[in-house]
Amino acid sequence: GILDWECSNFGAPEQDLAHIRPIISQHIEWDRLIDHYEAAGGPMIDREAMNFYMAFAAMRLCVIFNKGVKNLQEGAVNDIRYAIIDLDLTPEFMAQALACTQAK
């Protein structure tokens, strides 16, 4: 397992799963993973709520990453890698969030 204390909170398991879905879905069918997750003792997942949590996860990353871009623009950091966030990652996460709101 991986612990990410920076964004830890008490919340719905769907919120945690939303962060890994884009990667995991490339390797295993999502409903199959959820079936295994629940069978292994994980809590029951509200599959209808996953689109909300996917959009929430994408927008949360946009806010976090945009803070890094702002720090670069204001000279608080000088790591040029923050520029790629503004050029590539923000539009990608926004597209993911929008796609989740349109999913049925």
Blueprint (SSEs and pairs):
Elements: H1 13-24, H2 30-39, H3 50-73, H4 82-102
List keywords for this structure.
elongated, 4 helices, mainly alpha, single chain, 104 residues
Written overview of the protein:
This protein is 64% helix and 0% strand. With 104 residues, the chain is mostly helical. Helix 1 (13-24) packs across helix 3 (50-73). It is elongated. It starts with 12 loop residues before the first helix and ends with a helix. The model has no long low-confidence stretch (mean pLDDT 85).
Shape: elongated
Structural class: mainly alpha
Treating each run of at least 4 consecutive H or I residues as one helix, how many helices? 4
What portion of residues belong to β-strands? under 5%
| Main sheet attributes: strand count, strand direction, barrel closure | none
Intertermini distance? 31 Å
Mean pLDDT: 85
* Total number of strands: 0
Low-pLDDT stretches are none
Specify Rg, calculated over alpha carbons.
Answer: 16 Å
In short:
With 104 residues, the protein is mostly helical. Helix content is 64%, strand content 0%. Helix 1 (13-24) crosses helix 3 and helix 3 (50-73) runs antiparallel to helix 4 (82-102).
